[in-house]
């Protein structure tokens, strides 16, 4: 029963394709009904035989036909979706037939083993040349060919060129740089139509097959990534009529495995590129951070950054000295524990409370405080919020700068002005008194 179902798939798919073509020429409910019935029948039968790929695509086509019957009209974008579904049915049918066929010199077991090995390319190969060469080396165990090649379409989609070329007569992989117009030859036709082809007899030209003067046979399987044809997998034999429909079915299965490897190689390549970009960005940020830390460490001020979680995100060596504990112990410490060490340093015990209020976010702080540790000195103290470019809070910066010398200079200046003012006022008073007596 399964063999009969597989053998009749081509007729079923051709029925669906013919109904769709009639609908494209002009919508008629009878044709839509015929499409719906054929798709519905294929969905149920495929599911019963375990052909899940066929059943899934046929179900999509059935849903489209049902919606057309209900609305009495088909939307333009639905035509392309239906045509693509019929193409997918053709490929799925080939895959299903390939799993049932046996009894050839190259058994289904051997071919299935090669399919499994091709799947491993997803995990081990990222470079396209590795994927293509690895696939051709494995495929030659189950398909007989003189030449095998992978051609790719150029960026302008005007030409296809030989990317990887294997020639058994020349002992393996050979350089291949030939380029052909995309509308030339059977390979160009397969790429344009996006459908696999088996050709029993064609001239062995100086092109991909390279059997000038003879007629050869070939199979061409378009390669897709996403919804785009990117090239084709070609097999050529030196004899006419060498390949069977079974061989083409297996070539399609092998092509699908290569497509999967290509998809994941591009995905892995994208991930690798993203990782490299992130690594470069991280290195740049780290370099900028190192520069900033170097500038802060070179400062004679004691500086620390308190995070939103009230832990010390950063502190320079001067701050560690001011607090009186190793720098390693300061970093990551809670603000509460740090302030316990700091509290005994203030000459005025209430000075620490103002800092706590500023760190709580109530208001910035800028004042002068006197510390007795590590030596008696006057410090300019600044506590201010820090925000990122978007305005989100990053924490608070706390800065202590020793201004003892500046305070002493200011005090001396003040005393000098006071003395000079006094000395000037004394003679002026005497002059005023003398003038009043006169």
Report on the architecture of this protein.
The chain contains 15 helices and twelve strands. It is of the alpha+beta class. A hairpin with a 5-residue loop joins strand 8 (302-306) and strand 9 (312-315). Helices cover 55% and strands 20% of the residues. It has helices at 2-7, 9-25, 29-48, 52-71, 76-100, 108-119, 121-124, 128-139, 185-193, 245-298, 317-323, 327-330, 335-343, 351-359, 404-437; strands at 147-153, 159-167, 172-173, 179-181, 197-203, 215-225, 228-237, 302-306, 312-315, 365-371, 377-387, 393-402. The strands form two sheets. Strands 1, 2, 3, 4, 5, 6 and 7 form a seven-stranded antiparallel sheet that branches. The mean pLDDT is 82. Helix 5 (76-100) crosses helix 10 (245-298) and helix 8 (128-139) packs antiparallel against helix 10 (245-298).
How do the strands and helices of this protein lay out in sequence?
Elements lengths: L1 H6 L1 H17 L3 H20 L3 H20 L4 H25 L7 H12 L1 H4 L3 H12 L7 E7 L5 E9 L4 E2 L5 E3 L3 H9 L3 E7 L11 E11 L2 E10 L7 H54 L3 E5 L5 E4 L1 H7 L3 H4 L4 H9 L7 H9 L5 E7 L5 E11 L5 E10 L1 H34 L1
Antiparallel strand pairs: 1-2, 1-7, 2-3, 2-4, 5-6, 6-7, 8-9, 8-12, 10-11, 11-12
Highlighted features:
single chain, 438 residues, alpha+beta, Four Helix Bundle (Hemerythrin (Met), subunit A), Beta-Lactamase, 3 domains, five-stranded antiparallel sheet, 15 helices
Indicate the CATH architecture of the largest domain. 2-Layer Sandwich
Sequence stretches where pLDDT stays below 50 over 5 or more residues: none
Q: Going by CATH, what is the homologous superfamily of the largest domain?
A: GAF domain
Overall structural class, as computed from helix and strand content, comes to alpha+beta
What count of domains describes the coordinates? 3
N-to-C CA distance? 145 Å
CATH topology of the largest domain: Beta-Lactamase
Shape: elongated
Strand content of the residues, in percent? 15-25%
* Approximate helicity band: 55-70%
- The number of strands is 12
Whole-number mean pLDDT: 82
């Amino acid at each position: 029963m399964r063999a009969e179902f597989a053998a009749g798939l081509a007729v079923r798919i051709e029925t669906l394709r013919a109904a769709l073509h009639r609908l494209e020429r002009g919508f008629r409910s009878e044709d839509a009904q015929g499409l719906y019935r054929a798709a519905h029948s294929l969905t149920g039968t495929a599911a019963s035989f375990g052909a899940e790929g066929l059943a899934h695509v046929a179900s999509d086509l059935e849903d489209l036909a049902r919606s057309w019957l209900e609305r009495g009209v088909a939307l333009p974008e639905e035509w392309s979706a239906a045509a693509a579904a019929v193409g997918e049915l053709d490929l799925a049918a080939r895959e299903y037939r390939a799993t049932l066929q046996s009894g050839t010199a190259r058994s289904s077991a051997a071919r299935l083993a090669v399919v499994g090995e091709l799947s491993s390319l997803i995990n081990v190969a990222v470079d396209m040349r590795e994927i293509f060469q690895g696939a051709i080396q494995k495929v030659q165990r189950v398909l007989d060919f003189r030449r095998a090649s992978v051609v790719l379409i150029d960026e302008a989609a005007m030409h296809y060129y030989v990317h990887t070329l294997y020639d058994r007569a020349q002992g393996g992989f050979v350089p291949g740089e030939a380029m052909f117009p995309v509308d030339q030859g059977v390979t160009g036709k397969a790429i344009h139509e996006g459908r696999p082809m088996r050709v029993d007899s064609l001239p062995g030209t100086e092109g991909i097959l390279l059997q000038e003067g003879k007629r050869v046979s070939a199979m061409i399987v378009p390669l897709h990534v996403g919804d785009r044809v990117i090239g084709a997998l070609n097999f050529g034999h030196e004899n006419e009529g060498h390949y069977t429909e079974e061989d083409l079915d297996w070539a399609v299965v092998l092509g699908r495995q290569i497509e999967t490897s290509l998809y994941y190689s591009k995905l892995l390549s994208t991930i690798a590129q993203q990782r490299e970009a992130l690594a470069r960005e991280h290195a740049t940020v780290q370099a900028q951070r190192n520069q900033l830390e170097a500038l802060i460490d070179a400062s004679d001020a004691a500086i620390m950054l308190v995070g939103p979680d009230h832990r010390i995100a950063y502190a320079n060596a001067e701050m560690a000295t001011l607090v009186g504990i190793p720098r390693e112990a300061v970093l990551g410490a809670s603000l509460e524990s740090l302030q316990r060490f700091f509290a005994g340093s203030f000459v005025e015990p209430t000075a620490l409370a103002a800092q706590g209020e500023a760190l709580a976010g109530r208001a910035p702080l800028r004042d002068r405080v006197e510390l007795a540790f590590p030596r008696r000195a006057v410090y300019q103290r600044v506590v201010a919020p820090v925000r990122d470019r978007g305005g989100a809070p990053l924490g608070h910066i706390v800065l202590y700068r020793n201004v003892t010398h500046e305070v002493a200079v200011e005090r001396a200046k003040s005393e000098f002005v006071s003395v000079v003012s006094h000395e000037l006022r004394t003679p002026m008073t005497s002059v005023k008194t003398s003038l009043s007596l006169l």
